[in-house]
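Protocol step 4 of 6: structure prediction from sequence.
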Amino acid sequence: MPDVRAADSTNLVRPPMAAWVEAPVNYLADLSIKPVTYNPPLGTGLPRREGNYRDFVVRIHDARPFVRDLSLDRQAFILTHHDTEVRDFLDEEEVRTRYHAEVEALIKRETGAAKVVVFDHTVRTADRAVERGLRTPVRSVHNDYTEKSGPQRVRDLLPADEAEVRLKKRFAEYNVWRNIDQAPIEMAPLGFVDSESMAPRDLAICDLVYADRTGEIYQGVYNADHRWCYFPAMTRDEAILIKCYDSLKDGRARFSLHSAFDDPTSPANARPRQSIEARAFAFFD
């Protein structure tokens, strides 16, 4: 099983809980069926999943009142102000040349990493995603990397000699998630499980099958002890950093769980969510 937290956290100060909403989120109910997700090429259809998934109603707290108390090494997610000069997030070249550099600088600022490699990004929309060649919001409780796939992705990305050197020191994978619409998010916000409320049994290995390769992610197994948070009405100048993997096993958060959900306070005519997540490895000396 993955090592979620290896040390006693009883002496840590937990952030106080504030206002909340109740909403269903999609978990694995159990492991009676091995979870597998089949991701078709962009523009050809929606992902197909195998596994005993069920919706569970959870209480999701507004984390804005205690945002300054959140930590990547405790909760595994933070919200920060982050201006961007990107004009069109649907312009692939502009995102790769301009936004990737902004994400690299942001992760260095927030983590103190010696080197950051931004290697991927995904634009998601709740408005005609397949027709537009984009992805839809992910409505299952998951984490993007596993104990195995984190190091493997480093080997995929870096020259062999550098990869082996980097893997001997601490490294982590972060997702940077933001709203790309000019108006605040009204539909399908992202919810997060406080990593301090997770147990190793909550993370189930799920094969992620593409046309040309098979990877691994974790799917979340339902645990009534999970503490959920979100940031309502996110604006374009805000970014969430999500830690999806950390090689260090010293008691800090190593993995996270997150999912889009239907906010019951959203207006009836809510604007379709449009977002981008960039993925990056941070390497520490």
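Step 5 (inspection) to follow. Residues 20-283 form a domain with the Jelly Rolls fold (CATH 2.60.120).
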